[in-house]
Structures are given as C-alpha cells and as structure tokens.
Amino acid sequence: MTPTHRTTQLGTTGPRVFPIALGCMSMSGAYGPSDETESIATLREAIERGVTLLDTADFYASGHNELLIRRAIEGQRDKVRLSVKFGAMRGPDGAPGGFDARPAAVKNFITYSLQRLGVDHIDVYRPARLDPTVPIEDTVGAIADLVKGGYVRSIGLSEVGAETIRRAAKVHPLSDLQIEYSLITRKPEKTLFPTLTELGMSATLYGVLSRGLLTGAKVEGARVHYPRFAGEAGQRNAAAVARFHAYAAERGMTPAQLSVAWVLAKQPAFVPVVGARTRKQLLDVLGALEKPLSSDDVAAVEAILPKEAIAGTRYPEQQMKMLDSER
C-alpha cells in the first residue's frame, strides 16, 4: 500500500482524499476498551500508508478523541484532512444532553475543537445531526461565516434527509453527506444518493462493517444496545453473517475486506469511513483496495447476504426517531 493510490474528490468543494477514511470514534472506548498507544500508532500507520481523511467529533469521549488525534498528527498536519462533527451535548457522567446547532454554539464548539486538535482550521465541519429547534439554514450559515474567516475549508452534513440537504445547499456549497451505508444498510441508495449526485456532492460512508456485525465483532460497549446484536435478532443475524464469512474465505478475503470492497464497488465516487482501532485492523481493511470486486462478485455477495436477511434497525428505536435521514 502506497500513497500513490487513486484519490476521491469530496464533491466539488471538498478535499481530494485517499479512497478509504479512518473513523476514530472507537479509539475512545465506544465499542469497548481501547489502548492510547496502539491508537496513536494506528493513526500514524494510516498516514504512512497514504490515508488522508480522519473523521472525529468533539463529543467522542468529551474531547478525548480530538486530543488523541492531536498527538498523532503532530508534525504531519499537511498530510491529513480533518472531518469534525459537532452538536451532541454530554454531561460530566457522559450521559446524552440533547443537541445544539445554534449559530452561537457552532462558533463555540469549533473554538474548542481547534484548540484540542492543535490546528488553525478544520477541513470539513458538520453538525452530527439535525437540530429540530434550529433551521438548517442558520446552522450552515454560521459555518459559512467560519469558512469566510478561514477556520473551515468545507461544509458537510450528517444523517439528514434530501429536503434538508437541498435547503442547506442553497446557503452554501456542501462537500459531502456522512451517512451509514453497508451491504445490509442500503436505504440511502433510494433517495439520498441521487440527491447528492444531482447537487454535486459526495458521501463519507460510515458503518460499512455494520459496527462489527459483518466481521463477527465481540458484543460489548455500545453494541449491547443495538437491536441487530440483541436477543433473537442477534442470533438470526449471526447465522446470516456466517454465510457471508464463508464466501469471503472462498475468495481469499477477510469479512472486513469483502465488506469494504463491496462498498467501493457499489459507490466508487464515495469514501467509506472505517473504524479501525489497531494496526492489524487497519492493514486488514486497506487490503480491500488490492482485491476489487467485479459486478458479478457484487451480485454474488448480495445474493448470499441480502439486506432483508438482517433483523433489527441500525440504531435503538429512540435514536431512529431522531434521525432526519429516516424521515
């Protein structure tokens, strides 16, 4: 793997990046214990291998994730592009405290992110969700002011629907939508992806491993609260995924590689965001770039693990109700 791999443009206004991005949330304990030394080593290995886009949020472990990234990119800022989400509120015990995307809050959030990351600008800045009490035009307008001030390079959105995207795009050009997408989470294909193409936007696709469901990850941390891992649905899904694992083995691929390769084949203009938290996981995922799938391969994978084979929603019921992208 070398930095000479093809790159992907994030819309018409965003940066050109390596075809796989590194999602950093799991490095701050979201899915069980993580090791800071290994996390930093993984980030540096990713940069050495050519990965350019690092995705984080100011609320991942209440700023811990941004501080971790700061240590990893020191002396290498010119090699990376930072995608930062904001808006989710947390109490001192880590409990959710709602969402805030008011213009004054936006400018407050970025002030602290710049300090924690040790940078003078953020490459793609985006609200993590739609604030139901604030017009999207006001939120995007506030980020547009930050673009004018040189603190932000590009504006993105996350988990919003087509109507919201259109309204936001009238205020300022948008680089990309961050949305969950995988072999078993394909709803964005229907309305969202055509809207992005129409507006000249790209997408950064998280959850391509379905939070570890497609790779057989241990059910710990946040996973215990997700319907696809729990009870009868969890047992049914594990059986369905076992067939997927067998097919990957037949092709000489790991489940993670097959998952990422499927996304790259289906959406070559978009960028999968993979949450590797160890160097071993990172190198495994990057191996997907060396094993592209043909259209026949894609059809075979979809026949082995059709989206309807998986039971349960991607988030718990209450969180699903809060997603503008699901309306």
TrEMBL record:
Keywords: Oxidoreductase. Residues 19-304 form the NADP-dependent oxidoreductase domain. InterPro entries: Aldo-Keto_reductase (IPR050791), NAD(P)_OxRdtase_dom_sf (IPR036812), NADP_OxRdtase_dom (IPR023210). One of its GO terms (molecular function) is oxidoreductase activity. It comes from the Bacteria. GO terms for cellular component: cytoplasm. This is Aldo/keto reductase family oxidoreductase. It comes from Corallococcus coralloides (strain ATCC 25202 / DSM 2259 / NBRC 100086 / M2). The lineage of its organism: Bacteria, Pseudomonadati, Myxococcota, Myxococcia, Myxococcales.
